[in-house]
Amino acid sequence: MRAAPVEETVNAVLPAVPPSFDPRQVPVVGVDSALPAVPVAHLDAQALRARFATPPTWTPELRREPRMFDRAPARAAVLVPIVMREEPTVLLTERTANLSTHSGQVAFPGGRVDPEDANIPAAALREAWEEVGLSAEYIEVLGSLPTYTTVTSFIVTPVVSLVQPGFELNINPYEVAEAFEVPLAYLMDPANHRRHAVVDGEKRSREWFSMPYQDGPHERYVWGATAGMLRNLYRFLSA
């Protein structure tokens, strides 16, 4: 993934990334506190509907992570569920440790697009139902963001939606360890966007964002592809 430019001197001191690593231990090389937060007034249902109905001219900041696995590309869809509470939140999941890709990471509900899916939004809605039991009757699809290609060669389309409160989740324990919510305003404030950079064992440089959120005793460590798609949502809403 290529974020905003990082100082050239950083690469000389980046730690090498082992085959399996804890992203929390990778140094922070920048925080974008100089960028303005999306105003809270732009995060309510009416404003979000208007933004997707008449999109601005904008450029996604992040589109592709460096390819690190030898596998054929596959289409995927994720639901970006904005829960319209008094303070809007984003519903996220922690993936279980047994999954073959992105295990243990914070993610949006979503997965591979199946041939039976009518379209990308249908795939995102199906995955949200299968993973966390979020019923489509509570969901209003607003639109999609540009695709984001992960290190595992998934070409992911984020489907942004409004979710009305009152739903009950039924978590699939094979795929999801936990579901939780993070305030949308927190995620749309670049003061909470931390940049990381690392060089792996084959001298490949990789950069990513993290957006750690302290939820009571739990640190919700949003990073990688999920943080990258949220960064693009920030760029879209702030354009």
Structural description of this entry:
This protein is of the alpha+beta class and 239 residues long. The protein has one domain (28-238): Nucleoside Triphosphate Pyrophosphohydrolase (Alpha-Beta Complex). Helices cover 17% and strands 31% of the residues. The chain contains 4 helices and 14 strands. It has helices spanning 45-53, 120-132, 184-187, 224-238, and strands spanning 16-17, 28-31, 74-83, 89-95, 106-107, 110-112, 139-144, 148-149, 154-163, 176-183, 194-200, 205-210, 213-215, 218-220. The strands form 3 sheets. Strands 3, 4, 5, 6, 7, 8, 9 and 10 form an 8-stranded mixed β-sheet that branches. Strands 1, 2, 11 and 12 form a 4-stranded mixed β-sheet that branches. Strands 13-14 form a two-stranded antiparallel sheet. The longest helix has 15 residues, at 224-238. It starts with 15 loop residues before the first strand and ends with a helix. Residues 1-19 and 99-103 have low confidence and may be disordered.
Q: Give the strand tally.
A: 14
Uncertain residue segments: 1-19, 99-103
Query: Nearest-angstrom radius of gyration?
Result: 17 Å
- By helix and strand content, what is the structural category? alpha+beta
Number of discrete helical segments: 4
- Estimated share of beta-strand residues: 25-35%
Topology order in helix (H) and strand (E) letters: EEHEEEEHEEEEHEEEEH
User: Which shape, going by the Cα principal axes?
Assistant: globular
* Amino- and carboxy-terminal Cα gap: 21 Å
* CATH topology (fold) name: Nucleoside Triphosphate Pyrophosphohydrolase
Number of domains: 1
What would CATH call the architecture?
Answer: Alpha-Beta Complex
Helical percentage: 10-25%
CATH superfamily: Nucleoside Triphosphate Pyrophosphohydrolase
**Would you state the CATH class?**
Alpha Beta
Mean pLDDT across all amino acids = 87
Characterize the main sheet. Answer: 8 strands, mixed
